[in-house]
Amino acid sequence: MVAAEWAEGVRAGRVDPVALTEKVLHGIEAADRVVGAFRKVRAQQALAEAQALATRSDLGELPLAGVPVAVKDVADIRGEYASWGSAAVPERPAAEDGEIVRRLRAAGAVIVGLTRVPELCIWPMTDSPEAITRNPWNPAYTAGGSSGGSAAAVAAGLVPIAHGTDGLGSIRLPSAMCGLVGIKPGADLLSESGWYGMSAHGSLATTVTDAALLLSVLANQPELAGLTEPGPLRVAVSTDLPLTHAPVPKALCDAVFHTADVLAAQGHSVERATPDYGVEATLGIAARWFGGPSEQADELDEQLLQPRTRAQVRFGRVLRKAGLIKPGTKERWLARANRFFEDYDILLTPALATLPPKAERWHTRSCPANALPSIRVAGFAGLWNLAGFPAMTVPAARHPNGLPIGIQLVTTPRGESRLLGLAAQLERLNPWPRLP
């Protein structure tokens, strides 16, 4: 069953939220030692929340009634501390729930745990001295990052939906690696502080219905849960990698072209076209990738950071001091992106620029050794954080090595419903296996 069906069962009284939570906790206990999705499992607290939920007078009206949800280890949960994957972050429990968790609780969700992230959410590979977060489809590969724990938890069937954040692809990259639907809304919908306004809260799920349902709760916009397949759209298709124009693996491109054929057969106008990415915008997101974590680290004990992170932070401070993180970079890229979308409603690209990195102890390696595979795999993602445009990944194919292959859909601000509707159409026309 998926989240929407579980919630319907709880609302109707057919499903006991306590028994559902117990079932999910047993699954986590049995399987998480393999995938390494959770930094903290809230077993006793989750059961208490489920018991309290069962007595709510408004249970029949809650969109996530009784649904066990995983939250990325950056969100404030009363009585827990968000570690951001770092020993440098003080272990001070939050006195109150943050806004994201408040909205989840108000919708009837049961918070079962905090999912693992790489230190300060910098990398698209999730590992730490305590665990390596692995891809449930092929444990030799990473589950991605920085929302890698959330992706692993959903892809392994431990929870039906999970919260994530996306600063330079941190929802879309792990979703694509793990065969999930992952959506980063526009900056005007669910942006969060830090990373120069590029990061946004979003959802990861195995179905479009569930991704839309969770996003509607996180954004406090119930209408986002109502999926409507769109009429004919103007779709631009591009496999041209920004900046380097390096070749993209054939299997990843083939998934894009197959998706384009599916859309064309459905009556959409589909043609090859690539935005004017330019050089400046790509360098601008690289500068922000270094600068954003360095601002967060200003409040931390640098000696407790991992060596790769210390190097990242120090270079970020150099860039900040030199004044190289300029608002004009975003403004000029945004103008070019808006011109491109005057002619198109959707941009279709690969979600990843390379195959996922292997699941290894990346935190023990140098900053350059981490940066190179990070930059290579994420080439299609980050520019849409800088622009603040909604973007999402949808499963589209399977690689011979067993890994899922995802495609990326991008649209203009306030176009989340358009993205979700088109993704629902693809789910119907080109369905994917939900779990390994």
UniProtKB/TrEMBL annotation:
Q: What positions does the domain Amidase occupy?
A: 20-420
InterPro entries per record:
Amidase (IPR000120), Amidase_dom (IPR023631), AS_sf (IPR036928)
Under the heading SUPFAM superfamilies, the entry gives: Amidase signature (AS) enzymes
State the Gene3D superfamilies in the record. Amidase signature (AS) domain
MF-aspect GO terms: catalytic activity
- Say which family it is in: Belongs to the amidase family.
Q: What is this protein called?
A: Amidase
